[in-house]
Amino acid sequence: MTFLVINGPNLNMLGIREPEIYGNRTYADLEAHIRDAARLFGVAVELFQSNHEGAIVDRIQQAYGEVDGIIINPAAYTHTSIAILDALKAAGLPAVEVHLSDISQREPFRQVSYVSLACIKTIAGKGFGGYTEAIKTLAAFIARKEG
Ligand code: DQA
What we know:
By secondary structure, the protein is an alpha/beta fold. Strand 3 (69-73), helix 4 (82-91) and strand 4 form a beta-alpha-beta unit. The chain has a 5-stranded parallel sheet with strand order 2-1-3-4-5, sandwiched between helices. 39% of the residues lie in helices and 18% in strands. The chain has 5 helices and 5 strands. The protein has a single domain (2-146), classed as Dehydroquinase, class II (Rossmann fold). The structure holds 1,3,4-trihydroxy-5-OXO-cyclohexanecarboxylic acid. 1,3,4-trihydroxy-5-OXO-cyclohexanecarboxylic acid (DQA) binds at residues 10, 73, 75-76, 78, 99-101, 103, 110. Residues 10, 73, 75-76, 78, 99-101, 103, 110 line the site of 1,3,4-trihydroxy-5-OXO-cyclohexanecarboxylic acid.
């Protein structure tokens, strides 16, 4: 089983950006965390980070027929991007949405997620642990579907 893990804009600035919200660990730390979690659940992961909406759309399209599921933290595009929503729908792969912070408790504009409309689950407010939960959720969902 292979999952594509997509992280959107400014997540490459983890450790520097708003540490009171996102913590002190870096994007490299997040990559290591995701790789460790994937190993734990026996799945392969491909990691992708981009600050560009079109690049994220391209990567989702490329994932069609290539991976079994997608984990995505679309960052600020969560709240604006119909293009990313449509790309997820087009690829038709099971997807889980992750946010480090609890977007339901932040500014009103962060409480709207277009991307969630194409996801089987949204995990928010659990920090790096949200990615672990996403891998577990996606693996169980696919195993159930195939079994
Ligand atoms: C975020 C929440 C978004 O509102 C914000 O724009 C981000 C990160 C999170 O992981 O908590 O960049 O997706």
